[in-house]
Q: What sequence folds into this?
């Protein structure tokens, strides 16, 4: 068993222990509290976290880690299949290189869980997967797959297909193509259910099968939306088909906070640290997260790696905290809120008995620029130790 003692334990579940302890056994948290008996024979390792902050592993709710690899150019960029606007059958799982050096950056920053998927060049981009950040075989790192279905609106799609003289070239066509695809998927679902019930032969369609977890409300649409009117279009279509959805980027969300609140959909805001090099991001601001939070909307923060570097996630949360979100809500936006929005909160996102032992130990508040990650723990295993060159300097290859 592994014992962490004497740390400021911020559980993200409503309790903070100023001098607390966590006991880990068989990859799970088995005890959290002020004092835990460290003389138990089964305890084999102890981390003294005196003067440190101990949090759930940090979570990135939207990124392209390992699917757009660092320092590899086009050969390592598998973010978009940009020759077909409707590709629901594509799975990020099949393109993520877990030996991308950015995975080590994640570990050295206390980031233990990431939601990874296709980019925004298509109306329907394909399926996201939620994985942990440590391992060599991605199949062993998966927490949830499929985790969401990527859809997109606006500038990126228009630019991609205008250049090819293909549809869609307007926002009207983007919305129409998405509606048509969802309409066909609903018909497919009805026909399949009817055939299964009657015992008739049914020919499955690989592309349409990808929509069933969405239509059955098991996973959400993951909508790339920056502009206010694109946000509203996404909400309109999701409501028409009674679907779950997350509003990703949500750059102009602060302009329509009441409408987003009424929709019931959560927002994943960012990358606010990136350069405003597109028309759609001209109103990007760290204040957006705080405004949405104060309106009663569940929010997470994203770097959209590699748009902003993944290991700057905590700093992005710090800027948002400074601009109105506040410290506690800033930490929630990269832990429990992110876990809940990504549908993995039963396993991670807070320090509670029975949850996976994914833990980050920092020298102080991780949202402050001088703070360092000392330990990163995944499934009860120390996978990064700042004092140990065997983990601190190791790359996954």
A:
């Amino acid at each position: 068993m592994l014992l962490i003692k004497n740390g400021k334990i911020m559980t993200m579940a409503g309790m903070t222990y100023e001098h607390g302890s966590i006991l880990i056994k068989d990859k799970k948290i088995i005890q959290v509290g002020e004092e835990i008996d460290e003389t138990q024979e089964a305890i084999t390792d102890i981390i003294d976290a005196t003067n440190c902050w101990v949090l759930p592993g940090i979570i990135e709710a939207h990124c392209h880690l390992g699917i757009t690899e660092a320092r590899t150019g086009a050969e390592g960029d598998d973010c978009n299949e940009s020759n077909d606007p409707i590709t629901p059958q594509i799975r990020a799982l099949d393109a993520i290189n877990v030996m991308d050096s950015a995975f080590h950056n994640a570990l050295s920053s206390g980031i233990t869980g990431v939601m990874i998927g296709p980019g925004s060049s298509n109306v329907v981009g394909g399926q996201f997967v939620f994985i942990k950040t440590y391992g060599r075989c991605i199949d062993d790192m998966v927490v949830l797959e499929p985790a969401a279905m990527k859809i997109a609106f606006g500038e990126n799609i228009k630019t991609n297909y205008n250049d090819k003289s293909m549809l869609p070239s307007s926002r009207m066509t983007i919305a129409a193509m998405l509606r048509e695809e969802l309409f066909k998927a609903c018909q497919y679902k009805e026909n399949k259910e009817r055939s299964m019930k009657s015992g008739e032969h049914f020919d499955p369609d690989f592309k349409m099968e990808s929509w069933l977890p969405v239509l059955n409300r098991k996973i959400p649409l993951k909508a790339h939306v920056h502009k206010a009117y694109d946000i509203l279009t996404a909400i309109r279509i999701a409501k028409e088909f009674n679907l779950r959805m997350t509003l990703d980027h949500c750059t102009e969300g602060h302009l329509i906070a009441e409408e987003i609140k009424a929709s019931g959909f959560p927002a994943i805001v960012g990358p606010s640290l990136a350069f405003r090099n597109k028309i759609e991001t001209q109103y990007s601001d760290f204040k957006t997260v705080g405004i949405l939070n104060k309106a009663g909307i569940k929010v997470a923060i994203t770097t959209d790696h590699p748009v902003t570097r993944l290991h700057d996630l905590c700093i992005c949360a710090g800027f948002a905290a400074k601009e109105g979100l506040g410290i506690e809500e800033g930490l929630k936006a990269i832990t429990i809120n992110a876990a809940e929005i990504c549908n993995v909160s039963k396993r991670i996102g807070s320090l509670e008995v029975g949850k996976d032992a994914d833990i980050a130990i920092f020298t102080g508040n991780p949202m402050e620029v001088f703070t360092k990650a000392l330990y990163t723990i995944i499934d009860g295993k120390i996978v990064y130790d700042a004092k140990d060159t065997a983990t601190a300097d190791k790359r996954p290859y």
Notes: The chain has a mean pLDDT of 95. Residues 321 and 329 are 7 Å apart (CA to CA). The first strand starts at residue 2 and ends at 10.
